[in-house]
Amino acid sequence: MKFLYLHGLGQKPDSWDRVIKETKVSDSSVSLSLAEMLEGKAATYGELYAAFSGRCDKENNEIVLCGLSLGAVLALNYAIDHPDKVKALVLIAAQYEMPEKLLKFQNLLFHVMPNAMFEQFGFKKADVIRLCGTMAELDLRDSLYKVSCPALIVCGEKDNANKKASKELASYLSDAHFHELLKTGHEANIESPEELAMVLQRFYDNIIG
């Protein structure tokens, strides 16, 4: 079984390092790079998802997907399309229906941020703006019933932008549990890595049996 981790925008694969290190499955864990998956491709959600799907398809065994924010959307999307491939899901700060107003506000902020802020994460500013723009109409609501694996939905106590959707998602999935990380904001893997690792390991123990 392989554990694949997906970071959010504004992060890099090493954002997961401290979390992975604290789990018992670190030897079977890989943190993927969103920037590398988009390299040489158009910066759209469709292209990113296609590249991610191709990466998951290469795994011969069942996979456990753990994603934060955009990474969680990709993980959920793949579990919908490939229910027999995904053993379990961990979705952190997840959205299943893109909040269009929030995305537009986010893109306005991106426009005034310096290019260097994006380049340190392997992206061009214009690519990030375009990528977010292509996600505005993404809506997975009508396909959630296809997710059959156990799911852990996690959200930081202070992540008010995503908490409501995370709780709703946990109620919509057939086998899901919601966990709130206290005193934690959006980037749970960076803000509370040890606590998050403990929550993940309890979930993994149940999955592995």
Automatic annotation (TrEMBL):
The keyword Hydrolase applies. Coiled coil: none annotated. The keyword Hydrolase applies. Keywords: Hydrolase. InterPro entries: AB_hydrolase_fold (IPR029058), AB_hydrolase_sf (IPR050266), Hydrolase_4 (IPR022742). GO terms for molecular function: hydrolase activity. Pfam families: Hydrolase_4. Residues 58-116 form the Serine aminopeptidase S33 domain. PANTHER family: MONOACYLGLYCEROL LIPASE. This is Alpha/beta hydrolase. It comes from Faecalibacterium butyricigenerans. The lineage of its organism: Bacteria, Bacillati, Bacillota, Clostridia, Eubacteriales.
